Queue: 4 jobs
Job 1
Amino acid sequence: MLPFLLKRISTMILTALCLTFVVFYLTNLPPNLEKLAKSEAGSRITDDEVASWLERNGYASPMILRYGEWLGVVPGWTTADADGTVVAGRCIEKGQDPATAARFCGILQGDWGVSSVFKDDVSKIIGVRLTLTGILMFWVMVTMVPVSLLIGILAGMREGSRLDRSLSTFSISTAATPEYVSGVILIAIFASSITGLKWFKGSAASAMDGITFENFFLPVLTIALYGVGQVARMTRASMAEVMTAQYIRTARLKGVSFANVVIKHALRNALIAPFTVIMLLFPWLLNGVVIVETLFSYKGFGWTLVSAAGNNDIELLLGCSVVAVFVVLITQLISDIGYVFLNPRIRIS
Amino acid sequence: MSKPDYDGPILEIENLSISFFTRLREIPAVMDFSCTVQPGEAMGLVGESGCGKSTVALAVMRDLGKNGRIVGGTIKFKGRDLTTMSEEELREIRGSEIAMIYQEPMASLNPAMKIGQQLMEVPMIHEGVSKEEAYDRALEVVTDVRLPDPERILKSYPHQLSGGQQQRIVIAMALMSKPALLILDEPTTALDVTVEAAVVDLVKDLGKKYGTSMLFISHNLGLVLEVCNRLCVMYSGEAVETGSIKDVFDKMQHPYTQALFRSIPLPGADKNARPLVAIPGNFPLPHERPNGCNFGPRCDYFQAGRCDAGDIPMFPVEGHDRHDTRCLKVAEIDWNAPLVAAKTTEKAPIGDVVLKMDDLRKYYEVSANALFGGSTKVVKANETLSFEAHEGETLAIVGESGCGKSTFAKVLMGLETATSGQILLHNHEIQSTPIQERSTETVSSVQMVFQNPFDTLNPSMTVGRQIIRALEIFGQGNSDEERHERMLELLDLVKLPRAFAERMPRQLSGGQKQRVGIARAFAGGAKIVVADEPVSALDVSVQAAVTDLLMEIQRENRTTLLFISHDLSIVRYLSDRVMVMYLGHVVELGSTDQVFAPPYHPYTEALLSAVPIADTHVEKKRIVLEGDIPSAMNPPPGCPFQTRCRWKSKVPGGLCEKEVPPFRTLAAGHQVKCHLSDEELASMEPVIKIAAE
Amino acid sequence: MQDLGWSGILIGILKNFLPVWISLVVLFAVSIRYKRRLGLYGKLFDSPIAMIGFALVMFWVFTAIFADLIATHDPLSQISQMKNKLPGTVQPDGVNWYLLGGDHLGRDVFSRVVEGSRIVVQIAPLATLFAFMVGVSLGLPAGYYGGRLDTFLSFLANLILAFPVILLFYLLVTPEIVETGMPQYMALVLFLFPIAFLMVLVNSRYYVVPEFRTKVLLVIGVIGGYLYLSLVGEVGTKVAVLPNALDLIHVPGNILIVFVSVVFVNSPTVFRIIRGIVLDIKTRDYVSAAQTRGERPWYIMLWEILPNARGPLIVDFCLRIGYTTILLGTLGFFGLGLSPESPDWGSTINAGRKLITIAPHPAIVPALALMSLVLGLNLLADGLREESLRD
């Protein structure tokens, strides 16, 4: 098990490095930097002034070096005045004595930089936003997982039955409805003046202070619906396949009752595939989160990501990307490990 | 819950008819089927694939699936009609009174459940016993099926056991509630011959010990002879003949039974002097059955206007005990008339050496654990392989799974390169030339016929196109027209109608596909053909025809045939020389007569004893090998066969466990890899004796 | 003239879609008549599910074809009095109705949805096709050869898959990126795959008949190369090869980047599917037979393995067009790539959502349109899967 974990984790770190570099590269392209310089030093500055601003703020060195600085494996940039004393640098905060500043200050040292829009530490912003999104995700999982597994199992245990037909139609429909469609429809039905129902709120802004059923139900439902479709279809396929397996026939012909065939013999084998799918669905849920947070103005992680990207807030966007990439990679790792544990065939061989 | 006493027949099937319903039509699978199984009796159900024998078994279990339905007749189990029982009643009978054992042991065990749980479940459901009692029962039954270390077995998962062990567990599971009737559906097809022999032995013994009646379904007449008291021969959904083993085997009363026996290689058959007689034509598809006798169109005794007039009932045979046949002309046919010998042929002369292997070795490096990485291991797939093959000769390569015969074929074909040693093809070294670097001539002169007919042709390309492609690659013909013409000739060669060129593979039967495979192999005028179990997946009646075809083409083209097989009957029938392999080693090499007569290598001896022979006159010595074939990943030290060898004690000093024996020459051209002394070898008795009539 | 009631609106819509109804009826009548001769396509008409799905998909395809006939207004023209007006409202000049109301700028929602179908129906299948070309061209060798190549390509695929799609879009589909010419460079690579694919396909089979092979390769090279240069290059951008007079296809930079990103996001999944299928099929005897007669690897991959993988691939193709439609909508929803004026469904939903609690129809209509198309594709895929498993 240990070599497997080591191998997986080293692949994961390599993937993370590659991905963060790509993000770093794409956010630090010359046009982005020019935009940054203009927004920091005034929008009317000349090209030469842009260049010198970039130089003074450490953006002139080669991309790969700057990536290293950001990561914290290359010493942070410094600028010295004419007589050689260091006056500014990546690791030197305003008013700090350059001599006491650390040499390295990247994300490895826990220094995520400062958001140019919110004027606050990126790590702090992300911490707050991620908590909000965590709450949302928690409720999404709580509703989505049991519902989708139940639908999938009920539909798959008797393939082709009327129950299967109706549940499958339901899951296909929800899988065909992306969050921005279902969200819009749900708001129009349950929160607009047209139907007059107004059961729930069309905005989850108030949920940031206190969650109520009224302000949180629609966003959770919107994300969960799409996921339910995906997971239920997967579970159904897996369940239907298991139900035709020879060992299910063996169990049936041993005289095991249908309920016990499903619960004792089929379930564990049928849940291996959906488990991996649920885990791999996280990148997808992240999408949903971004859409739903935008749609319902819930200022969580997804909303932050969108605003960082829209405002050319490079440090914040980089921070968001690191988190997003790690969430995806860690769920992949969990999915791999879980697959091994659920499947005795692989575990012991 | 006690089982009621009952002393009538265990199973009585009367005029049973079963149909499957598809969107388009009703397909009758079994028609007017009757049979009776008395207590303690073992009934064999024999027939080719698609004849409906498994459907009968499933009907007894009332598990025909969504589309299958019993459309007529009754199935009485201990006097109660199963066809009218409710689900509830059926569940009480299933597993406790009737148990079933299937073809694929691995597939019939739940991969995510421990063996113990799966076994204990049976008495817990049916008899409501406690967990402890169920565990004790499981332990007892696992011991009964002769598995070593039962406690460990109960704690393991199915995939941790070998195929043979899994099948024993399936048998144990069936016996957990001491059922009155045991249905075995081809229980040994997936197993190696020596393992099969041990399982069959076990089934027989346990049947006696538990007093269980059996319904034994098989396509192998030899196996039925070993296990059953009575049998029922099925053809295309009908029982055609039923009676005691002795009557049906020796005094058969139906043309199909007769044709079946004539098409299987029994001792005494010979490819030149007494060739097999293939049954002409093809098995009818269920919706294309002829009027009257289903076997009519393929029958030698067919009489138009009479045999195809209407449905034919079963007729009892006078003077025999419960012996029935579905033939109108039973009284008119002279059943003892000697077979009008089909054309006999001269033995083809053997030519020069065309292929020589010298000390060939092929080792693989595999990581011990695919998922978790870890240390690599060397698998010795082929060890010191040396032999010669002559022009026009058939050299059989015999062995069970893991013996290295497929690796050898791959190295010869150039799909893999040898680790060391030499392969000389017409005196050219080819052992380290991969196929991409071989000349077209070399490639086209060494070709292969594959095992699985359903896999050998590309399903999305027409038959003609596939043969033409081979011609293109082998540089045959100068234009598309020439190649098309040549393709039609090849179809003629394998005796397929020219119209087949336009067909897709799915429209062909297994035997026909195999013929196309043969045509494709001979497209470039192959001089050496490796036939990897070319007929083992075919039905008995088709096997003879395909074998015949191979022999005929070989005789005309003077091809060297390397015939890979595990079936010693067919090997004896068609090969000139035999090479026996075990775990990558050649253990015996010699002419067919030498290998099939003592002195044997101990493994050859066991193999001979294990092969079921469908002849009541043959007396076999029973040699049951202990355990399973060791894994090639983890071979035993010393002689590869020492873990299962019954002669091991005759070799002094534990030599077998220390050293790989040398290859010794016993007689001209007869070599054996064994430590046994000459005296011990000389003391061996023949395994197969043919009793005088 | 009066404002229309619900039944009036319904009749009006049905009437406007007349060309679509006629086409659908003709298509279905012909297909059902000859379904036994049409192979897998014909089998669709045995399954009600597949038929419903197919009808939904074809409805939008025909709508896209006849969009100019169906649309009642110009999708961009604004009538200020019609802002956020309810469905069925009469125009101020009294000659026509806004069947499904007006949006926040006073444009006709109905016409915008109809015109918007064009964008989806053009881009989604084409982008999916390209993604398949890329996925197939890389997945085949990865599965067939295995080893280092496989490790490397699989790593790359997983890399892209680990990238949250939205983040990728936000990074790729920006004016700054278009300015750097990156989409065109990516297009340079991605669009090369179909040409290479076709050439290898022909060469692997016909290298035994050199004259024929050379002719076909030349034709593919010339036509494909011209289309390639014309598609990728654009005068006045970083990649300008052909002069304007010869440049046949003009793709605006922002559409190109949308197209490229969608292909980029889809191909790793296709790669994984193909790779899995190849791993299964390559153990078959007919592949061994091809190997033992000395066939070259690309022949085996393209002619022995690929045709036998078509079942699952066709099913996935349908599903993936649906997925691509969703992705295009996502892009529109975030206002990425396509111009805000564009009538595509995603952008329209985005524009409409701001006033959703007051006037939901500008957002609801395109939402339902998008949903019905994706649903149709999913149903079609399901039906296809069921039908191809039968027999």
Job 2
Amino acid sequence: MASTFHLEIVTPDRKFYEDEVNMAIVRTVEGDVGILRDHVPSVVPLSIGVIKIKKDGKMIRATCSGGFVSIDEDKATIITDAAEWPEEIDVERAKFAMKRAEERLKESNKEVDVLRAQIALSKALNRLRVSKGE
Amino acid sequence: MAGMGMRDIKRRIKSVNSTKQITNAMKLVSTAKLKRTRDRFERVKPYFETVSETIQGILKSADNIEHPYISGREIKKSLYIVITADRGLCGGYNINAIKKALADVEDRERSSFIVIGQKAKGYFSKRGYEIIGEYLHISEKPEYRHAKDIGKLALELYKEGKIDEIKLIYTQFASTISHVPQMLKLLPAAKQEEEGTEEKEFKYISYEPSPGAVLDYLIPKYVESAVFGGLVESAASEQAARRMAMESATDNAQEMIEKLTLSFNQARQAAITQEISEIVGGAEALK
């Protein structure tokens, strides 16, 4: 059996996940990073993306809307603003958010608004992707 | 109460009794609310604790990192974020938090405030302190976005150099009957001194893309989560304090009713005795 490490995912509302896992793949600001046991201790900010967790040969997915991960040899802690399992995602709401963000991107020209709309759009797209199991 | 007639005492009992009913109802309401806010606090705690643990870990191993959020500068102006309730009738809860803040203020010219809750706003604005931001009607049900707004405002001021340190005053929820106001220094982020840190082993931690970039992201997160943790914890303390205050008010009313009932009975008895002796005296005289 492959070696495991302790993974913890916390959001402001709850302790999202806590278990011994084989591998976790997270999307950092510099690209996807796979975490195994005995990873070099590091702290990396996360971008909006998917958290993939491999446990007992099965792969489970969750959305992550930015945050950071703190990795130790036998422990990794992901701290994020929001995380959801695929079945928790409100698809209608994500679609609505996507449309709204797209409209805003077309209309507004202020830098701040564009940035906010872009973030909203990528969060919505990310949710939709994960809900389809991609 | 001796001088009071029977009718006065009866009126008194009635009024104390209705007060008691009100305080008792308020106690029940805050008991229910306390349960809710406390559950919430228990859920939020891990996030808040994990964030501050991580930050402390980084600060400890990163003695040599130079960063404006950490290194600090000469303190010309301090910012206090004071968390109180919107409403009173909760014992010393509000005033204790305010006092905690005031104990640290040396020079009012050199301090400014972000007030949360009507009570802190009333106190500080009446006395002419400088208030930079006010957040009302959120202390009972704080949301993460409120904490985000507050954190953002404080950090902007810090970056612009308008303030040189940030302190958070919240009420710690020790148990349902004990809540202590606490002050937490948020910026410049300082290591919390621990005993026996001398012999810590050196551990290499890699920061990607760079230590500065990581801290740029982490410190605001730290401030937000600390404010959020403080808000939620204070909300629980507020309900607990109100429950306690209302409970003792109800107890006091009950005690008062008992005393009044006793003196009412005494007065009634005295009146009856007097009447009897008057009748007996009258009958004697007729013989």
Job 3
Amino acid sequence: MTAVVDPQAVADPLPPRRRNRAWEKFRRSPSALLGGVLVLFFLIVAILAPVLPVPGPAETDWSMVRKPPSWAHPFGTDEIGRDMLSRMIWGAQASLLAGVVSVMIAVLLGVPLGMLAGYLRGWTDAVISRFTEALLAAPFLILAIALAAFLGPSLTNAMIAIGLSAMPIFVRLARAQTLAVMTEDYVESARAVGIGHLGMIGRYILPNIIPPIIVQGTLTIATAIIAEASLSFLGLGQQPPAPSWGAMLNIAKNFLEQAPWMALYPGVAIFLVVLGFNLLGDGLRDALDPRDS
Amino acid sequence: MLAFLARRILIAIPTVILISIFVFGLQHLLPGDPILVMAGEERDPEVIAALREKYRFNDPIPVQYLAWAGNALQGDLGISLRTQQPVLELIGEKLPVTIQLAVMALIIAILIGIPAGVLSAYKKGTWIDWVANIVALSGLSVPNFWLGIMLILLVSVKLGWLPASGYMPLTEDPLQSIRTMLMPAFVLGTAIAATLMRHTRSAMLSVLKSDYVRTARAKGLKERVVLIKHALRNALVPVVTVITLLFGELLAGAVLTEQIFTIPGFGKLVVDAVFNRDYAVVQGIVLCTGIAFIFMNILADAAYRILNPRMSDR
């Protein structure tokens, strides 16, 4: 009987009306908009870093060592006379890159695995689930530190370590969403009309699990940015002289009495960008939550 | 309850085996011959030969794993290259320091997070709720190592109220020990407080809507009694579970907090091990935290069943 229902007609996860409603809800939330503006601001700063009129991030001026903020150096200078504003701008690039790339690694590995577990069930599910539980058992940062330690300290390895550590969240999410979608009538209908595995996954399951993945992805970028800053703070991320907010804080802690501004600005920047992604993620979750529509 | 615990422990065994495989596999990520790296910079041929023999590096990988896992099962996680101490002994030495930090942080988090969550839910939609939510989200967004640095700058450097670093064992001078740990515990506690506040708020919101709270109010009970005796007691069930699960966050947070305040605990041990290429210690720590986390998970499930008797017959 169900075969007469056109699966394509009911499969769209966000039909135009709901999509508009989601956007309306998002637009009416001041905190979500604030999050969006913060993220956009840092994105633009990171992209424009090479053309902004500031000195190079590695340019040293020995006559300007640890100078407080002034017109020439609005954020002051660091322990070897480098312009803090320039290092902050270039640091934004490292932070955002680390946040986005590591979440992409986590999504690209985690989502297919989770979908496979939820779709095939049985032994595949059992193996993938146990594997995920094992990875989830080690605290996120300790796992990332261990991986970064064995892979060697660099920004790329920090991104791989953070991505692998964040992967289990996406495996679990994709698995749970796939299991939920599999019980829907339109999936039954699609099965009944004889659509193959790849068609089922690509046309019916994947589009339906994308909204929660976007929400989780946005919130995980916030966690990943803090993780990258933490690894760089410990000396396991971006290596000097390349600028990174976490590494800048690591040096700044040695000059707290003489140059407190060195510690102030990188911390504020991490806080604002992470707050931005958290607000954006919360806003997206509220906007895309079907229970409220 | 015993049957439940036995079942949960049985289910945990494959996960523990997988963690051990993962931890064993870490050493194969090292570029080149892991034994050369494990032998340190001196590369004493005798040490190399002994390590090769001990870890059966001339055997196939599955045999190597079984030898390593067999040693680990007997509590032999290897020897620290730096201190020449057994890894397990080293972890056991540092753990009490971190436990003191974590317990103090948790007390601070509970004292801030639960009242804030209750108040925020009770005053839902008012400015109090709004402020509490903003503060909680900020608590989640602020990197705790930066908060630590800023507190050192303010409380130690500018005001001179508390020491910026150092550690005094609780058994030697309890008052000084608490004084030195206060700032690190506050730094670690704030992030946890934010998580607790959000969970308490959401649990309280659903409890406040329930029939028994409405009945309690209809009976004419004082609002404070309704709020604390009827609502909070029930809302605390999921919150207690969350507290047990926050163990991982506390440990990870301790790594950075101990680094900033130079506290010689578990977290500092990890970082020092990483920089001294003391790989056996790093492996030992990941294995121990993984197993401890699984144990905490079982404890969380057990706590949930004890606090929520409706679960016990399932």
Job 4
Amino acid sequence: MEINFEALFLSKIDKEIKIEPKDWMPEKYRQTNIRQISQHAHSEIVGMLPEGAWITRAPSLKRKAILLAKVQDEAGHGLYLYSAAETLNISRDEMTEQLLTGKAKYSSIFNYPSLTWADMGAIGWLVDGAAILNQVMLCRTSYGPYARAMVRICKEESFHQRQGFEILLVLSQGTEEQKAMCQDAINRWWWPSLMMFGPTDSESTNSDQSMKWKIKRKTNDELRQQFVDMAVQQIKVLNMTLPDADLKWNEERKHHDFGAINWDEFWQVVKGNGPCNKERLDARNKAWNDGAWVREAAVAYAEKKKKREQIKVA
Amino acid sequence: MIKKYYYGDYGEIEGGVSSNKSETEFPLWEVFIRSKQGLDHKHVGSLHAADVAMAMENARDVYTRRMEGVSIWVVESKHIHASNPDEAESLYEPATDKIYRHPTFYNLPDEVGHM
């Protein structure tokens, strides 16, 4: 009997049965997941750079230890995600190469510089906060290995957002200079954080199919709105302001209206013209090239050991 | 025409997979963790490592940063053989019609009590 693989696949999606690596899947589903999961992994890896820059300059030993732990988490999250992508038949090396040559994208937010210590707070609160909304949704994504990676990531991520908010909270209760630094960081990171959710729904090319296949569960605009509504409440605790004159409660929609996003800036940064695109790629390339001898030595050592064991057995 | 794909989640790569890796890419390992004494080891994910010592250290760093485990197993992915989901129906068929293997199949009077 001929099995209709596509119908079987769609019925699983319909019944909320996860798709697993050895199951049949449409080629486009596989490609979309590879693209999304690897971009997500690259974002975790490149995301270590703006924060890594502050590890040596953290204001206290406590803050330094926390930041180290957070950056180590990002590395771990990248690894979970690379593993998930590899189950779709793409090698780790291939993904690395796509990142290093600029063929693959990563979240544009990391192409902005981290200028002051307050940026560590703003990144934790806003950037990780935006990422968490997306990641919580992805815990229910239809591809099994991706969903499992996201569950693990979400468990660890809330510490990131809380430590960021706490940094801002301490600054917001500090000297006039510290307060100004806090507000300045919020001003600079607010709009790029809103852009993290991607183009508006009418412009988003991959959204429709991804919703049908339950790779995504909410649209870019839905998540963005959720984020704005949340931030409006939380900023009050900081006694700071969000840099948007058009931000106000809309009683009819039961949501906050917000100002127009500068999509021209968004596309400029995506296309490689952001403030740090080149710096980030250079840093990743340098790390990869400088580490080549270590990788080669590890392989040579493993082979030598294997041979010795074979001789012993013989 | 519908094309069939097999992807190696856990080792045993059939039907042509991943040829595009360099010679220096470390082999893939699957990681299993016992979360506490008395429980089974459970698959938690995979990682790349040159040898077993590196696999063990990487597994500790990647999968147990928050005391998630008291024991780690690592096994090279190529040593794991997986069943084929397309053959699931015939593979598990012998179990489906033997409902007398379940305790609820037997109607006993209430007086018997918990059994």
